[in-house]
Write a structure and sequence with these properties.
By secondary structure, this protein is of the alpha+beta class. Helix content is 48%, strand content 8%. It has two domains: 110 residues, no CATH class; 80 residues, Nonspecific Lipid-transfer Protein, Chain A. The chain has a four-stranded mixed sheet. Helix 1 runs antiparallel to helix 4, helix 2 packs across helix 3 and helix 6 packs parallel to helix 8.
């Protein structure tokens, strides 16, 4: 499975689920339906002129307007088809090597955003290879948690640990790499993890909010 394209697999699985749920189903993305999520992902790959607002708050207004327009003007099956097709050759997201780096975690998290917003969901049994890849990508969580005033260490069942932040009292988050990925992406309420450590640090983490 070393050559498995995990980004492609998660993209296809997400598209299958979107086609099943339709545009009005809930997601874990606050305020977004499945239609909003699909429009966001299509914008990210096909509207580089509007995509900077995903990361830059000053430009977010334009990004939101373009996203709403995409959703309003594109039939949902067409939107899912564009997402399944992937970025066009002229898109920065279509450059060689970008897919695995930029999309593996992105599509895993958004796939779970739809799955775990449904009633009676259960975690998927992911392969050891995919769990290992997600573990290696968890260092990106340092950026997401950079303003959290707690020393956060991630711990997975095999005994490996990663320290994401260095300031404040100590807390440790235990779980499978897939669950830790969701936790670091701000989906703590849906992630099956255990948080231990100094009471003040655990309390701060329970109140803190961050998003991928």
């Amino acid at each position: 499975m070393a050559n498995q394209n995990w980004a492609r697999a998660e993209r296809d699985a997400l598209c299958d689920l979107l086609a099943e749920t339709g545009p009005d189903a809930p997601t874990l993305c606050e305020g977004w339906t499945t239609g909003d999520l699909a429009a966001h992902l299509v914008l990210r790959e096909r509207r580089p002129d509007a995509a900077p607002g995903i990361m830059v708050p000053l430009l977010a207004g334009r990004t939101e307007r373009v996203q709403r327009r995409i959703l309003a003007e594109t039939p949902f099956p067409r939107l899912v088809g564009l997402l399944r097709q992937g970025p066009p050759a002229w898109s920065p997201m279509g450059l060689p090597g970008v897919d695995g780096v930029a999309n593996t975690v992105e599509f895993f998290v958004h796939h779970e955003d739809v799955r775990r917003a449904r009633p009676e969901w259960e975690p998927r049994q992911l392969s050891a290879a995919f769990e290992d890849l997600l573990w290696r990508r968890l260092s990106a969580g340092r950026f997401l948690l950079r303003r959290v005033p707690v020393q956060v260490t991630l711990a997975e069942p095999e005994g490996r640990t990663q320290r994401l932040t260095k300031n404040g009292k100590q807390a440790r988050v235990h779980g499978l790499p897939s669950e830790l990925t969701l936790w670091t992406a701000g989906r703590g309420r849906a992630a099956r993890v255990e948080v231990t450590g100094e009471a003040e640090a655990v309390n701060v983490l329970s109140r803190s909010r961050w998003r991928m």
